[in-house]
């Protein structure tokens, strides 16, 4: 689980860096928002994957 979260945080940092400079004041806030969106996407993907296997 920790490995998955670490990978998501690394990806979120890379995505946030595409839109905001790393030395910007609000970079950590943007990175947090991207992380929450990615975690939500992972949860939705896991839920849909479970429905697909059951159906």
> What percentage of residues falls in helices of 4 or more residues?
over 70%
Q: What number of structural domains do the residues give?
A: 1
Shape label: elongated
- Rounded average pLDDT: 91
The amount of beta strand, in percent, is under 5%
Q: How many E-type strands?
A: 0
What structural category arises from helix and sheet content?
mainly alpha
The main β sheet shows up as: none
Number of helices: 2
Instruction: Indicate the radius of gyration in whole angstroms.
Output: 14 Å
Pattern of helices and strands: HH
Question: Oligomer, anyone?
Answer: single chain
Distance separating the two termini = 26 Å
Low-confidence stretches: none
Characterization of this structure:
This protein is mainly α. It has one domain. The chain contains 2 helices and no strands. It has helices at 2-19, 27-54. The longest helix is centred in the last third of the chain and has 28 residues, at 27-54. The two termini are 26 Å apart. The model has no long low-confidence stretch (mean pLDDT 91).
């Amino acid at each position: 689980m920790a490995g998955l979260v670490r990978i998501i945080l690394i990806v979120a940092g890379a995505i946030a860096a595409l839109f905001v400079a790393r030395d910007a004041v609000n970079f950590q806030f943007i990175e947090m928002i991207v992380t929450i969106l990615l975690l939500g996407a992972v949860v939705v993907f896991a839920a849909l994957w479970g429905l697909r296997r059951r159906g």
